[in-house]
Amino acid sequence: AYLGLALPGDAGSWQRESKGYQFWTQANAKGYFKINNVVPGDYNLYGWVPGFIGDYKYNGTITITPGGIINLNSLVYNPPRNGPTIWEIGIPDRLASEFHVPDPYPSLMNKLYVEQRKDKLVQNSVIKSYYF
């Protein structure tokens, strides 16, 4: 899980926030986490888990003081679910690494970018013909 402190707001609001500080860390295999060097102030704790949809928000404002240590005990995230997943596109990990971007048609290519792409992932000619 990824957990961070950001200005108070709704769940997921940290993604649109650009006015204040944000402090993030990743929980270890047992779920423990520690966020160091946080500027004193009032924050909300936000989080997300790779492979699960939705955002976590701790209920309550966390006030950071110089040299302070805060123990939140156990935090539980229950992803939003209205039934079993029938179909999904991609993996809900906030990455796009499973998607293939094909080579552009030469007539539609931006002429400012003329160097050949070096990050080509798929060499199979059958797969090249599909855009997925």
Walk me through this protein's architecture.
This protein has a domain of 63 residues. The chain starts with a strand and ends with a helix. Strands 1, 2, 3, 4 and 5 form a five-stranded antiparallel β-sheet that branches. The longest helix is centred in the last third of the chain and has 4 residues. It has 132 residues and is mostly beta strands. It contains one helix and five strands.
> Structural class of the secondary elements?
mainly beta
* Average residue pLDDT: 83
Order of helical and strand elements: EEEEEH
Helix content: under 10%
Organism: Trifolium medium
GO molecular function, one term: lyase activity
Pfam family, one: fn3_3
Domain Rhamnogalacturonan lyase: 1-70
Features:
mainly beta; 5 strands; 1 helix; extended; lyase activity; 132 residues
SSE layout and pairing:
Blueprint: E1 2-6, E2 23-26, E3 41-48, E4 56-57, E5 62-64, H1 125-128
Antiparallel strand pairs: 1-2, 1-3, 3-4, 3-5
Quick take:
It is built from one helix and five strands; from the N terminus they run E-E-E-E-E-H.
